[in-house]
Amino acid sequence: MTDTAHHAGTRSAEGALALHEPRNEGTAPDLDWALDARANQSAIERRAATLPSRRSVKKEWQAAWLARAVSCIDLTTLSGDDTPGRVRRLCAKAARPMRQDLLDAIGLPDLTVGAVCVYHEMVPAAVEALRGTNVPVAAVSTGFPAGLSPFDLRLKEIERSVAEGAREIDVVISRRHVLTRDWQALYDETRTMREACGEAHMKAILATGELGTLRDVARASRVAMMAGADFIKTSTGKEAVNATLPVTLVMLRAIRDYGERTGFKVGYKPAGGISKAKDALSYLALVKDELGDRWLRPDLFRFGASSLLGDIERQIEHFVTGRYSAAHRHAMG
Ligand SMILES: O=C[C@H](O)COP(=O)(O)O
């Protein structure tokens, strides 16, 4: 996202000319606007519940949509037993996520994922392994996943990851600022993290499963965007409840409201528990409905996922060959 290739408008992973938007600079904190956010829980849940059946993608388009989903994956490993070797294998998969015969069959010259997402300690291995590709490294920072280490250390962690070559930083917010309704503190914290990111793009993880209500998800989304988040992201993948369609609807509408107010386009990243191709299609359909086609590109949309790629590859293989291969053949990602 932050590389010169994207800014210069060179070819992106899916072969289309990469578009570029002015980066969200954020605004002064307008806490009345944040507080004013609404979320009608029952209407939102009804809409999300009917989406997968109402919005099925036709068979001939499915492979194209699934390839688009691959280009938007932040291929992730965030485990205590991560090793440089595992990260290198993941990076090889990120640079060539699908077999060439499958790509040829669906008419795509090349394809990469959106980014590789790792802990700080794995940034150097990932940067090295992805050298010469267009795939950026994203680092989770700020005491991920709880975000409860001392604030100055959280900022240092961001700076270290950027210095080691991460071009995207996924920060976690302090959930307590939402739970205690201290919106100014949430704004100040997020703004300071954004400054620490410098040129690296910042994804603000709201940990929506811990925020209590959809209305507070909407409010936190607005505050994070006013503080300059380039993306708002649902979850760390470590909460009891991670990405959901209702939360997605709320966050997409917050992105739309913010865009109408400021002209800035903010990206969206659902993360955690998305491992099936058909779920990925539901998310893409919702993004298309709420924000339009412009958001179906890796500069404005990512899936945070450690095991979605394998299922998508399986479905595309089935589309091309008429057969399913065993899941273990697509073990990585
Ligand atoms: O940000 C990404 C998540 O940690 C990935 O979660 P997952 O392992 O459930 O796909």
UniProtKB/TrEMBL annotation:
A GO molecular-function annotation: deoxyribose-phosphate aldolase activity
UniProt superkingdom: Bacteria
EC number(s) on file: 4.1.2.4
KW Iron (keyword) present: no
A cellular component term, taken from the record's GO annotations: cytoplasm
InterPro entries: Aldolase_TIM (IPR013785), DeoC (IPR011343), DeoC/FbaB/LacD_aldolase (IPR002915)
GO BP annotations, alphabetical order: carbohydrate catabolic process; deoxyribonucleotide catabolic process
Gene3D superfamilies with a match to the protein in the record: Aldolase class I (3.20.20.70)
Pathway it works in: Carbohydrate degradation; 2-deoxy-D-ribose 1-phosphate degradation; D-glyceraldehyde 3-phosphate and acetaldehyde from 2-deoxy-alpha-D-ribose 1-phosphate: step 2/2
Keywords carried by this UniProt record: Lyase, Schiff base
Residue numbers spanned by region Disordered: 1-30
Catalysis: reaction(s): 2-deoxy-D-ribose 5-phosphate = D-glyceraldehyde 3-phosphate + acetaldehyde
Recorded family membership: Belongs to the DeoC/FbaB aldolase family. DeoC type 2 subfamily.
PANTHER family from the UniProt entry: DEOXYRIBOSE-PHOSPHATE ALDOLASE
The name this protein goes by in its record: Deoxyribose-phosphate aldolase
Taxonomy of the source species: Bacteria, Pseudomonadati, Pseudomonadota, Alphaproteobacteria, Rhodobacterales
